[in-house]
Design brief:
Structural class: mainly beta
Order of helices and strands: HEEEEHEEEEE
Protein name: Lipocalin-like domain-containing protein
CATH architecture: Beta Barrel
Pfam family, one: Lipocalin_5
Shape: globular
Number of helices: 2
CATH class: Mainly Beta
Helix content: under 10%
Strand content: over 45%
Length: 149
């Protein structure tokens, strides 16, 4: 069953944007950082970001400049909620309860899931990013909690 196979902690390996013209990009850099957690009760959380985001000039958690805040937000995707799987279509549906992108709160984000051993590939439908629609393909590696880097 897909749901049972998803349960665990996953470390992000790669994120690739596939644009309509056939070109590809790396919306979170070529060496992104991220973690995805699915639990057996149907809860999930994901954090992914560009590993090379610049630090803020201030140590104050609420003291960033407008430009610093924009760059930090543009370089990350974070959300949590519940999930369900569709065995027939090999899809996982994320029911988003909280997100740094407020437009996603209360939505369902569907991902095509491919599992091979300890590798998980999640693919989106078309997403608008930076004014261009693209399919986002995220590759994850299963890890034990103590192995997350």
């Amino acid at each position: 069953m897909l749901k049972e196979r998803l349960v665990g902690t996953w470390q992000l390996i790669a994120v690739e944007g596939r644009l309509p013209d056939g070109s590809r990009n790396h919306p979170y850099g070529k060496n992104p950082l991220g973690m995805l957690i699915y639990d057996s009760h149907g809860n999930m959380a994901v954090q992914l970001m560009n590993r090379n985001r610049p630090s803020f000039t201030s140590a104050d958690l609420k003291g960033s400049t407008g430009q610093e805040a924009k760059e930090a937000l543009d370089g990350a995707a974070v959300y949590f909620g519940s999930y369900e799987t569709d065995e027939q279509t090999a899809r996982v549906c994320h029911h988003i309860q909280g997100s740094v992108f407020p437009n996603w709160i209360g939505t369902v984000q569907r991902r095509r899931a491919t599992l091979e051993g300890n590798r998980l590939v999640l693919s989106t439908g078309p997403l608008l990013m930076g004014g261009t629609e693209s399919e986002i393909v995220l590759e994850w590696q299963r890890v034990a909690p103590s192995e997350v880097t």
